[in-house]
Amino acid sequence: MAIKTPQQYIESLRDGRVVYFDGKRVPDVTEHPVCKITNNWVAMDYIMNNDPRYQDLLTDLDSNGERVSFALQPQRTPEDLFRLREVVKLWARVCYGKPTGAKFVAKDGLNAVTVVSRRVDKKYGTNYAANVEAYRTHLQKNDLSFAMGLTDIKGDRSLRPSQQVQHKDFYVRIVEDRPDGIVVSGAKSHISQAPACNEVLIAPCRAMQQDDAAYAVSFGIPLNTPGITMICAQPEIGEGANLFDHPVSAAVYINDATIIFDNAFIPKERIFLKGEWEFAGDVAYMFANFHRLSAETYKAMELELFTGAATLMAEYNGVDKKAHIREKLTWLVMYTEAVETLGRAAVEHCVGEDGSDLVYPSPMIANICKFYFADNWHTATKYIQDIGGGIIVTAPSYNDYVNPETHDFMEKYFGGKAGVPTEHRLRMVKLIRDLTSCYEDVLTIHAEGSLEAQKLSILQLADWSRYRAAATRAAGIVPATAHPLFVELPKFPPEL
User: What angle in degrees, to the nearest 10, is found between the helix axes of 363-388 and 422-435?
Assistant: First the structure.
């Protein structure tokens, strides 16, 4: 089939999947008024892949001459990573800072199991790497959308998966091992775009111990598989939301759904990890390594939008020349460009992995970039809300603006600087309200790993011997800490 059309993608979702939204079973996700928001957003992948203007960037020709999505290709060189950055930038700029979810997250999980499956095969003589490659080919040939199922429900966070007290299904686990496959139960949560995807790639979210072996499981499976139920996340908006009042949230419903596995059967050819507990943490770690590029690239594009909205709101309010406003705008520019620069630097200093021909961004730089973005987000929110003013939360709705009885009042009293149409100011007010919502605040802190996860990674990756060598040499401590950058340096200060 190669590249699907948007219409073929939408039709593929009519497959009998079990989805619940706001307490009711959804008979057809392609007809549901809110689920359609997610579908249409994910469909942008297929719209752009079929657009001749973008095909050279977004697609490749496979060995049979069929066009396939570049995002599903393994990235083996720095040039591949830079191209992937441009892909994610395009996706994000088109979709208001939120990349289309057809392959955005799960492609990084696919690369993670590509790396780890070879390690498991080498130690145990399993056939997981072949399964992964067959799965990659299946995704490419059928141009499937697929979600990444990484985060388990977790229950009591102080206990490992096998130690949970209330029940044993807070993490997805193997409940039966059969000659033809496995049966799994448990749940994954925060799974973006799941009800709008064809398949889900499941992987462990943490390191495990021997007692947790049943939870060390990875596989790829269609989302209409018997035993799978999806419960949609509560959206920011309701049915009938318009793009005036909700320019982002009425166009992008991420639908971070919960996926429940109730004795779902997984065929053996779809299994990428089955009880090899010592490799569970490797999968989660490798996913983070690959996904950092995607996350930091779209965040820089999101900040373009954010900083642009702050700039225009300052102009519309007539305060863009005020010293404290210019200071805030300058900070936002530095924040935006620093995230972009750090993300690019992580790719420039990309690394490989023993036993694999894949490359991924520098984990140290990438984690610093992610932390810097998330840790400063609330300051950015404070600045843009201060620039915008109270109107961000008190402005009447689009229906009031178009109502003949109230339109003239709103046109008169919600104007700003002379020469700026009232409608433009109101549209910017609504955009800022969307961009600085509670959802965006929580998403920024926790998506792609928490602040503590970044700090832990940075601590573990730090080149402490280099830091110590610089300090001991300057302090005149003998012997100084050995490090290749310092041992051959000439004596300083010189004795002349």
Answer: 140
